[in-house]
């Protein structure tokens, strides 16, 4: 998957908030987890 498509897909997945969970593959799951944590941290700074 190219970078533009991956960026769009991760944003789309994150738009569901806590109503979605990425189960596999592990690499995108980790990236979504890190992006979600960064967004939450930024919100409360």
Short précis:
The protein is an all-alpha fold and 45 residues long. The chain is built from two helices and no strands. It has one domain.
Poorly predicted spans: none
Q: Any idea how many domains?
A: 1
Mean pLDDT level: 92
E-strand count: 0
Derived structural class: mainly alpha
Number of helices: 2
End-to-end separation: 33 Å
Strand residues, percent:
under 5%
The coarse overall form would be globular
Q: How helix-rich are the residues, as a percent range?
A: 55-70%
Reported for the largest beta sheet, the result is: none
Cα-based radius of gyration, to the nearest Å:
11 Å
Order of helices and strands: HH
Structure, described:
It is built from 2 helices and no strands. It is an all-alpha fold. The protein has one domain (3-43).
Q: What key attributes describe this structure?
A:
single chain, 45 residues, mainly alpha, 67% helix, globular
């Amino acid at each position: 998957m190219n970078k533009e498509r991956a960026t769009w897909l991760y944003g789309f997945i994150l738009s569901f908030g806590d109503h979605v969970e990425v189960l596999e593959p592990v690499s995108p799951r980790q990236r979504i987890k890190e992006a979600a944590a960064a967004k939450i941290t930024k919100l409360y700074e």
